[in-house]
Each structure stands twice: as C-alpha cells, then as structure tokens.
Design a protein that fits this description.
The chain is built from 18 helices and 14 strands. Strand 13 and strand 14 form a beta hairpin. 40% of the residues are buried.
C-alpha cells in the first residue's frame, strides 16, 4: 500500500525562521504538550535549512545524556559527541536538535554556556514535558540565555490549509479584514468545516487520520484521540507521585462535567466529594505546565494591565484541544455536524475559543459582576480592553454584555457566534470560524 503523505503547514515555522535570522546564537527551547508536532516541525525545518544537521533524542539514545554530566564546557561536550558519532562537526554550518531534553537538567543548564561561547552554536531543544521540568527546575536555570517558544495544537486555519481549503480560508480572512459578510453558501460551508474541526481537533495525528479517511468522519478512527489521552494519563502516572497522579487523572477526566456547567468556574467538588484546593492545586499546576489544560482567570477590574487585577481563586479550566474534549466527553460526531443536539454547544464552543486565543499567546481572563453577569473573555488588543462574548448559535441576545458595556464603555465589543461578519452598535460580529484572526 502506498504510504499516505501529509505535509503540515504550521504557523510555528515563522517563529523558527525568526529565531534563525535574529537570535540563533541563543539556544531555543520549544515547549508543548505531547503529540502537538514539535519533533516533526523542527526536524523538517533543520533538514531544509542546513546541509549538516544532528538529531539527538535523549529518550531513545540515553547515552547522550552522559556527555553533559561530567562537564558543561560546550567544546568538551561537542568533542564527546564527535567521538561517539565518528566525525567532526562543522559548527558554523550545522544545527543540533536535542529532543526530549527534559530528561536531562544538566543539558538544559549547559545551554547557558553554549550561549556564552564565542563559537556559533545553533541549538534547538524540545520536550513533551519540558514545561513541567522548567517549572520545577532544581539546577541553575539559564535565565536570559535561552529563547522559549510554545507550540500548541493546530488551529482552525491550519486545519483548513491541511484540508486543502485554502480558497475559503482566504475568503474568511478577506471578510474579517473588512467586516463584510461572506456569501451565504460560503458562510454555511465555513460553519460546517468549523463543526468538523470540533470533532477532529488540532492534534496532527487526528488531522492525519481525517485526511487518510478522505475527510469522511464516519470512517474516522476515534482511537487516535483515546490513544493520545491514554498517553497523557500515562505521563501523569510516570512523572508524578502516585497520589498526585490520581488527582491529575481525576481533574483531567472531570473536565467535561466542568465545562458542561452554565457557570464554568472551576468547582473542586466536581472532581470528587472530598476534593479541596489545598490537595488539588499542585495537580492543576502540573496539568497547566504540561500543556494539557488552559486557565482563564477572573479579573476584578477591566483595566490594563489585566494581570494586575486577576482574582486567582476564581478561574476556569479548558482542555488544550477541542477534539480530545469531544472524545473525552463521548460526544457523537453526528450530533455535532447535524446540530441535532444542543448538549455539545456549552461543552465545546468556549473551549474552542479559549484554545485559539492561547495558541496566539493571548492571556485568558474573564469578567463577572456582583449581579452574576459574565463576559466570557476580556482581551487587551492594541492597548484597548475589549470584552468578548461567545455564543454557540446565532442567538446573540445578551444581558451580560449590555451590563459590561453600560458600566465600562469599551471602544467596541466582540461577539463570537454562528452569525456572519458585521458591525452594529459598536459590536463586531465575528463568526466562530474566524476566531483565529482576532488580535492579529
């Protein structure tokens, strides 16, 4: 059987090019959850940009870790690698990619000395649990000596490009830039593709499965999702204490019930009858730093900087990928595509928006009044504090947004829904399929 070819066009490649052209003397750390495509993207980038390229995987080739244990002098480390591989490394024209680097704190510490060396070392490191390791770093972390970038699952635009839908992607961008409605047939097609994305999600393996099955969701093998979820749960057991593993597992598995609530503020009691903040706070932090969950914090006052007004005890959690949430929630694809059930809407829609914002490194905040009015997201766009309301359907009536605008008079508001593009009463109407363009 002929092997299926899949070329992921990822926006993250732009960050790699920026690093190479402007900061290549500074080692790059790429952080992201397991199976978001870190290895694939970086390997492809290195192979295309350099004739000489060295790939080292600390998990598969544990012997390389030993080269960093005795001495952190870059020249001595490189000499050991040369002796092991049996050839001289042309440092000026070579790039070194160290994968699963989180398995060696010494290797991460050594990046400081590679950065300070007079030689032109170009080093990229990545790891599926790198965020967790950096959060608990016990050695001397090379502050200011490394560049850090985050890789998230593929967003809706990347899904469109992978699916060959470049023309409708261009049409969405054109309409967004002018706030002009898409023609009704294109609008309906874009919404249909959005609902498909809710089923498939942005994990590269899931999108590959979707394409391999000729974009037929009835043939989609959902074990792709369950295998990824299983690998996450296995990481929790392998890289945490047994008691914390139980708690992280409980929190992750309880996410569908958390998001199904009308008020999505995180409730410990939905995790377990005896679950309390003191016992579960570190487990939540592990899931956040592992890149498996996203956090939106309530703000007391919608003023810049938003982080100065956050109320840390009030927060919402979202899954990092809506496709995984769909499978974890055991939702039926047919109900989502045909909209025969409204159950999925509260579970999936806000999560979809949250992960799109996070993908662009937009901090997540929400606002709530004393009278229980709530605005889903508060963004800082070009220095302006903008309220963002999310609706799963085309029903755009909202007392909460009216309450917010009456109190705080923003320059404009954003309403995300299944309605077409438009602008009325200082409210920008943005369809769900164009969320990835907000903030550009």
């Amino acid at each position: 059987m002929k092997k299926f070819k899949f070329d992921m066009k990822r926006k993250f490649t732009k960050q790699l090019f920026y690093w190479l052209e402007n900061r290549s003397e500074t080692p790059l750390l790429v952080i992201g959850a397991r199976q978001t495509g870190k290895t694939y993207i970086i390997k492809k980038f290195c192979e295309k940009q350099f004739n000489n390229y060295i790939y080292i995987n600390f998990e598969e080739e544990s012997e390389y870790r030993d080269f960093f244990e005795e001495n952190l002098n870059p020249e001595k480390i490189i000499k050991k690698i040369e002796a092991y591989r049996g050839y001289k490394i042309d440092i000026e024209n070579c790039i070194i990619f160290i994968d699963e680097v989180q398995l060696s704190e010494r290797a991460i510490t050594s990046l400081k000395y590679f950065n300070e060396s007079e030689k032109d070392y170009k080093i990229i490191c990545a790891g599926s649990l790198l965020g967790v390791v950096l959060n608990r770093f016990t050695s001397s972390f090379p502050v200011g000596k490394v560049a850090i970038e985050y890789l998230y699952p593929m967003d809706f635009e990347e899904f469109l490009l992978a699916s060959g839908e470049t023309l409708i992607n261009d049409a969405i961008t054109y309409s967004y830039q002018r706030l002009k409605p898409l023609s009704e047939p294109l609008h309906k097609k874009a919404l249909s593709l959005y609902r498909t994305y809710l089923c498939v999600g942005g994990m590269p393996a899931a999108i590959l499965e979707y394409l391999k099955k000729q974009k037929d969701l009835t043939l989609f093998d959902r074990s792709v999702h369950t295998n990824i979820i299983f690998s996450y749960l296995a990481d929790m057991s392998k890289h945490t204490t047994s008691s914390q593993a139980v708690k992280t597992n409980q929190i992750y598995s309880a996410m569908p019930s958390q998001l199904a609530k009308t008020n999505k503020k995180f409730k410990y009691k939905l995790v377990g009858k005896r679950a309390k903040k003191d016992g579960y706070e570190s487990a939540i932090e592990w899931l956040l730093t592992a890149g498996l969950l996203l956090k939106s914090v309530k703000i007391a006052r919608p003023q810049a900087p938003l982080s100065a007004y956050q109320k840390n005890s009030y927060f919402k959690l979202f899954l990092s990928d809506v496709g995984l949430l769909t499978s974890l929630s055991k939702l039926n694809f047919g109900d989502i595509i045909l909209e025969t059930s409204f159950i999925y809407r509260g579970i999936l829609t806000e999560n979809f928006v949250a992960e799109n914002f996070a993908n662009k490194n937009i901090d997540l905040f929400y606002w709530e009044s004393a009278a229980s009015a709530e605005v889903d997201f508060i963004l800082n766009i070009d220095g302006k504090i903008i309220p963002v309301e999310v609706k799963a359907s085309d029903n755009t009536k909202s007392k909460s947004l009216q309450s917010y605008t009456g109190k705080h008079a923003p320059e404009y508001s954003i309403r995300i829904s299944s309605k077409n593009f438009g602008y009325n009463n200082k409210i920008k109407s943005i369809p769900l399929y164009a969320v990835h363009l907000i903030g550009i």
